[in-house]
Every structure is written in C-alpha cells, then in structure tokens.
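re: that chain from earlier
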Amino acid sequence: MYIVNFGLVFIVILMKLFISEYNYEYINTSDVKAGMIISTETSMLFLNSRVKGLPDISNENISDRLSESECESIRRWEKSSYGSKTVKIVRKIPFAIFISLGIVTYIIVGVMLN
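^ sequence. v structure.
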C-alpha cells in the first residue's frame, strides 16, 4: 500500500517538473504574434516603460492573449531603453494527455487495491 502511494507521489512530482520546465519558451521580441500569452515575468518588465499600449500584468491564462496592437507596442518596446531582444511566452500544454494518464493510473491503482 505504501509503495503505491510513494509511486503516485513520485509520478506527480515528475509531472510537475515536466510542466514547469516546458511551460515557457523564449522567443525574439520581433517574433511576437497576436494570440500569444506573455509570461508574468515579462509583463512585469513593461511597468517602467513609457511605450503606450503595452499589455497589463499577465495572469498567464487564455484571457491574456495578445492583440495585434499590443504586439506592435511590444515590438516598439524592444527598441526602448527598457526593452529586451527576447521575451518569455507561455507555451500550450496538451492537458488531454495528462488527464488520460490520470484516468488510466486511477483505474490501474483501483484494480491493484481491490
């Protein structure tokens, strides 16, 4: 029983490491496109800038997708004194895989315990 619990905790820790490692990607600021989601870390860099039209602080959810006007502002921000050549964006994670693995694990563990 304890071995199963330790195994499940180990799997959850591995999944958490995987998600935190591959959830973000650095891209060139000039490559920012509408629909992308800027990381909270990058959006904090916009606070000191005088460039108009930059997005607010990102919560990294779907409602924070960039519009084309915000992308243009970010490209202008790159050339400003506070700008950066790269920005950190949130990558999409295929959650269906993790949900499926969770269901299969639940079924297997349920069969093993009964």
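The first helix runs from residue 2 to 22.
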